[in-house]
């Protein structure tokens, strides 16, 4: 997050606490796609993702005054979003007897194009992943252990800093780094052969 983005976030948080409706509209504009994408990645279900997104907005609108500024505002928002997702998954598991492990992340959502793995796609100039490549990456990510998936999703897909991800997950920075490192090692091992075969330079290092 840039200095300007941090400054905007601080102003936005302050105005939300004050009950500024225009600030809430701005919050929705900034976070709608991000929260929906995170929820969809974790639930694999459009309706559930929509429900989670709406629940997050309602929670932020009602409880913005409880934000104490001890962490970054974005970290607090993602923590609210993750809590909403976990509640949805628990509810769905009771209703449908589905596994939480089966609910972790996918990399597409209806109406929302999301870059699959930002740090890799940005490492190769003008690299456009084919549907085949996206499916291979998605399959590899789906096989990550749950804790590593979440760290990877927040850090490398959602673009949070390590500190922000740690705050969102209520973990130490070193714990997030460790989980992210394991996730990247697993993915590198699973994907290196594929990318070497496709001769895509600079993707798996």
Q: If you had to describe this structure to a student in words, what would you say it looks like?
A:
With 205 residues, the protein is an all-alpha fold. The chain folds into 2 domains: 1-110, RNA polymerase sigma factor, region 2, helix turn helix motif (Rna Polymerase Sigma Factor, Chain: A); 115-205, Orthogonal Bundle (Arc Repressor Mutant, subunit A). Helix content is 70%, strand content 0%. It has helices at residues 3-17, 21-43, 46-63, 73-96, 118-123, 131-142, 146-157, 162-169, 173-198. Helix 4 (73-96) crosses helix 8 and helix 7 crosses helix 9 (173-198). The protein is globular, with a radius of gyration of 18 Å. Residues 97-128 have low confidence and may be disordered.
